[in-house]
Task: structure prediction
Amino acid sequence: MPLREILLYPNPVLRKPCRDLTVDDLGSDGIQTLIQDMIETMYHYPGTVGLAAPQVGESVQIFVMDSTAKTTKDRLKVLINPVILRQSQWKYSREGCLSFPDYLVTVKRARKITVQWLTPEGQTQTEEMRDFEAIIVQHELDHLQGVLFIDRVKNIQTDLVLRNASASTPSQV
Ligand code: ZN
Result:
């Protein structure tokens, strides 16, 4: 399974809304290979907790995540056609993004969400997620719609910093 190249901003693919997948699509070798490649690519970059298909050049509604950033795959999730059904408890947090290696951005996100998605086997799954996992889902779901974290910055002077200048380096998604 090959690693996939990470597209960097301003690659235009990062701006393209992704298409939904059908259960038939999920049965194809191409999609299953893409999912495996995305998992391998996410774990390849230390500290990475999420990766969306457009970041590897594919405009389809898939992202992978693992809030532990460890390669044991304990918390690995693959979300296809994800939808947020409910969100609440908004707060600001600092995020990194593989497609913006030089920047950290402060973004307002819901701390509590209910998300529904299809598994790679085509099963519908609904789960409530909180805190770090909830933030990962919102960041990745934005990627699937061509939205990037810089779009959510309120004040470019205070809410965007160089990664090197930051004392603590958060995970990237
Ligand atoms: Zn990102």
Remarks:
- The mean pLDDT is 94.
- Residues 97-99, 139, 143, 173 surround zinc ion (CB under 6 Å).
- The beta strands are 50-52, 62-65, 77-97, 100-118, 124-130, 160-162.
